[in-house]
Amino acid sequence: MKSDVSILCELARVSRSGYYRWLGQADEPSKDYPDYLKIKKVFDQGKGKYGWRSIKMRLPEMNHKKIQRIMRKYELVAKIRRKNPYKMIMKKDLEHRTFSNKLQREFHQLTPLKAFCTDITYIPLCQDFVYLSVIKDIASGEVMAWNLSATLAMTLVMETIRNMKLDSYENILIHSDQGFHYTNPKYIEILKELNINQSMSRKGNCIDNAPIESFFGHMKDELEYKSCRSFKELFLRIEKYMRYYNYERKQWTRNRMTPVKYRDYLLTKVKG
Fold it and tell me: Are 38 and 155 within one domain?
């Protein structure tokens, strides 16, 4: 007499061995579940951004193949970090030029309005990015010019240069990285017309441009930009922050003065 299992297998048109193999697999979730809870806890702590390598570092006792298998089974897919759009710009043309590092990390400048650093950073806005270009006086720390744009067109840096109002541009130095904008013939030409000397960081050495990198770091820590819902709102907040940074934010390394007061202090010493 056929067993109930045999009858059911015939009705379902599956083999007994196939049925028992399926039955064994059906019990697996209960075996994996305790490990899944451990992995899920770490995954959630990483806000869904941890892949199996990051989880393995936090659960060293667990086999990495098991972590991969369980993540696939329970569909724990890490969010992919968005690439820096600034680094995704087209490669340089043959016309683009680089310049030597004339600044040579001489960040302790005592004469204001002579050596400047510049760079671009990107700021998230409503599922997209906007781009901020800044020029900073290395001696005083004062933000001399800035420009915010919805695109990475050359006007971003060209307008920043035009926004820098100086009595004289003769023999001043402006330092940047070797980015697409700063090696562009249009940018080189406008600096040449103003008699501004150009200096560049070595490739892959962000420390060569540390003053501007430090500024962007402080700005993003202090500026409430994540709640902005429009370009205009973000622009006004940045404008307010730049005034605060130059006129109100005292800096310990600059005799506890604001950048503008420290600039005036240095100019007095130079004239004296």
Answer: no
